[in-house]
Amino acid sequence: MLKKLPWREVPLLDKTRATAHGRDEIHRLKAATVAGLPFPRAVQALQVVRRRRNVRTGKVTLERIYAVTSLTAEQATAAPLAALVRGHWHIEALHHIRDLTFTEDACRVHTGTAPRALATFRNLAIALTNLTGWTNLAATVDHYRSRPDRALDLIKPDS
Q1: What is the pTM of this model?
Q2: Is 60 within 8 Å of 51 (Cβ atoms)?
């Protein structure tokens, strides 16, 4: 439904460009107030177009995503909406890291508060890795998996 809205007629609200991690990215954001969206309390539809170019190979990919928000146009101007979308990508990236390194999606723990506790421990491991200067999470996990007696070194204060 959101894809079928007349996006060509909607003015561009925000455009950002960034180069990092071997990629040159351009993000374009459009937002439109739409009545009757089939999502509770949603009043605006968003279209984000992300153009990514691999600096090394020159390969270009184009991705379009659609979202809804309960924020009105007066409550959320272009910059805050763009920040919210980028914040969501950050959360997705963290989940991707947790799943690749800790196989979180394959975890068979599904009851009570255990899934939330395990996610907290995974986030703690990622944070400790970053704080102690490791740059490769998978290498860190491998290192401490084979040396569990050294894992407490991550949280010991320097003497």
Answers
A1: 0.61
A2: yes
Please state, in angstroms and rounded to a whole number, the distance separating the CA atoms of residues 14 and 77.
Answer: 9
How far is 24 from 21, CA to CA, in rounded Å?
8
Asked whether 59 and 53 are in contact (CB, 8 A), the reply is yes
pLDDT digits (tens, 9 = 90+) for 16-48: 998 988 899 999 999 999 988 888 899 999 999
Q: Which long-range contacts (CB under 8 A, 24 or more apart) does 30-37 make?
A: 31/69, 31/73, 31/76, 31/78, 31/81, 32/5, 32/7, 33/72, 33/73, 34/5, 37/1, 37/68
CA dist 47 and 80 (Å) reads 15
User: Do residues 122 and 104 make contact, with C-beta atoms less than 8 angstroms apart?
Assistant: yes
DSSP 10: S
